[in-house]
């Protein structure tokens, strides 16, 4: 059975619609490559060399964080039986993952890896229920120990798919700022970050649609991440089994949301929160976001109704931050 790579969990559910304000004439470079198990597009006011360095940074993080690469730190952690010294990046992502595990009451669990391995969302068959039950015995993010720069997974295997691309997007933003890049777009397969003086329109795709938009966000200096149930799933006799798994059952989360789009200052946080929103369902997700500072969300439920949190308002068919 094909194993899912760690960075395929956040889907391409966002579409950059266009730039609303140009902010003056500036040289811009744009390129698209397949990295992090997704389509990565970088479009920034910089020279080609700087853009290439940004792509190299993506490659470095993929080598560091991918659980399918034997030399990565995640693979070393998954194969260890004690504390392993790790980089600042791995430590930070794991620590934030534990935080979001606690925040979600265990719904967000990076030790779900043995269950994820059983699912093939490019196929048509379901995993054996006994295999799922056995795999769930080794799922418990609270078993992870951290000690400074060292991590011990205590026999648990981790998958950072619900948070790592967010971290990488944040690091790319830092890289561009350090290199005096004034504005641009970072799009890691749906983890979108827009920065600088320009204002961008970012579209939210209609669930189970043919590329139509459900909504458009007008954003400046923000991260936006969508998680959804409708692009990677198995249709078994008319029943949909999507890729966002519930650690309590090992099966697709039972949710009344088709998609959750989270807007905030950091992509890492938006990444984790978008997944948690799907796991929570609409009402609980809305309460979560309303109580999270500097964070807003757009929800599309299973009847294709669109709702959004109180920090957004609609003008001329576009959603804008208050």
- Per DSSP E runs of 2 or more residues, the count of β-strands stands at 18
Strand order of the largest sheet: 2-3-7-8-11-14-15-16
Shape: globular
Question: Which homologous superfamily in CATH is the superfamily?
Answer: ApbE-like domains
Order of helices and strands: EEEHHEHHHEEHEEEEEEEEHHEEEE
In CATH's first tier, which class applies? Alpha Beta
Q: Helix amount, in percent?
A: 25-40%
Which secondary structure elements does this structure contain, and how are they paired or packed?
Elements: E1 14-21, E2 29-35, E3 38-44, H1 48-65, H2 73-78, E4 84-85, H3 88-103, H4 113-116, H5 129-136, E5 145-147, E6 150-152, H6 164-178, E7 184-188, E8 191-195, E9 199-205, E10 213-219, E11 222-228, E12 233-236, E13 239-242, E14 257-264, H7 267-280, H8 282-290, E15 296-301, E16 306-308, E17 312-315, E18 318-321
Parallel strand pairs: 10-18
Antiparallel strand pairs: 1-9, 2-3, 3-7, 4-6, 5-6, 7-8, 8-11, 9-10, 11-14, 12-13, 14-15, 15-16, 17-18
Helix pairs in contact: 1-6, 6-7, 7-8
């Amino acid at each position: 059975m094909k194993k899912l790579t760690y960075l395929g969990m956040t889907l391409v559910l966002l579409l950059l619609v266009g730039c609303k304000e140009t902010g003056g004439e500036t040289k811009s470079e744009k390129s698209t490559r397949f990295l992090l198990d997704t389509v990565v597009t970088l479009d920034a006011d910089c020279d080609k060399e700087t853009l290439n360095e940004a792509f190299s940074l993506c490659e470095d993080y993929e080598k560091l964080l991918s659980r399918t690469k034997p030399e990565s730190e995640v693979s070393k952690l998954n194969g260890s039986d004690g504390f392993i010294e790790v980089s600042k990046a791995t430590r930070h992502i794991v620590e934030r993952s534990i935080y979001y595990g606690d925040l979600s009451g265990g719904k967000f669990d990076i030790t779900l890896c043995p269950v994820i391995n059983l699912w093939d969302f490019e196929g048509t068959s379901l995993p054996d229920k006994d295999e799922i039950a056995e795999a769930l015995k080794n799922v418990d993010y609270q078993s992870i120990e951290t000690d400074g720069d060292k991590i011990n997974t205590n026999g648990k295997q981790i998958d950072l798919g619900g948070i790592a691309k967010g971290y990488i997007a944040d690091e790319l933003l830092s890289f561009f700022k350090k290199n005096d890049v004034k504005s641009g777009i970072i799009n890691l397969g749906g983890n979108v970050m827009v920065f600088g003086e320009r204002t961008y329109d970012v579209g939210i795709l209609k669930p189970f649609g043919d590329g139509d938009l459900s909504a458009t966000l007008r954003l400046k200096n923000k991260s936006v991440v969508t998680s959804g149930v409708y692009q990677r799933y198995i249709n078994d006799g008319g029943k949909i089994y999507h890729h966002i798994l519930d650690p309590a059952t090992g099966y697709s989360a039972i949710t009344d949301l088709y998609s959750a789009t989270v807007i905030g200052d950091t992509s890492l946080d938006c990444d984790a929160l978008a997944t948690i929103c799907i796991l929570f369902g609409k009402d609980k997700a809305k309460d979560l976001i309303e109580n999270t500072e500097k964070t807003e969300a757009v929800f599309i439920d299973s009847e294709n109704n669109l709702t959004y949190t109180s920090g957004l308002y609609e003008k001329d068919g576009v959603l804008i931050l208050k």
